[in-house]
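Before our next group meeting I need something from you. Please put the record directly below this note.
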Amino acid sequence: MQTYKKYAIAVQIIAVLVIILDAILTTLHWFFPLAYKAIGINIIREYDVSSLSFGQIVSGFMVEAVASALLAYGFLLVIRLMNYIKNDQYFTLEIITLLRRITQVSLAYVIYNVLCGMMLSVITSLYNTPQVLSLHIGTQDLINILAFCFMFLMMTIIQKGYELKHEHELTI
């Protein structure tokens, strides 16, 4: 088996593990906070949900579930991409379209994560006297947004170039 096929299999396995781990950690954080703290990963999430009402917990879970769904969808697209690579398909329109969709989902995920923090600050401070609405955009967030915008633009150009080349080949 060629090396790139081994890498494709490894990427697929890692993608599946990330999807499963993210779903488990999100569920544990919002519905089983003691178990979440017991495994020692309380540095990932900022909010202590043990003092929140059930409505706040469900709302917070739904907000993070959208982020988890975007992440899972992106990794499912990566798994499909790796299947193409394992079948020795590299420069097809399907691959280019798939890469373009992966960059779209990645960009949506990065932007949603910025908004997710704001929504969670509202949800977790809903019954507090000073309600908090904070939108935190860090340098890394801006870099990620710009990088994925650039990647999306590049994939659009590559897709358009492929279509023009294919159209030109059909012209007599």
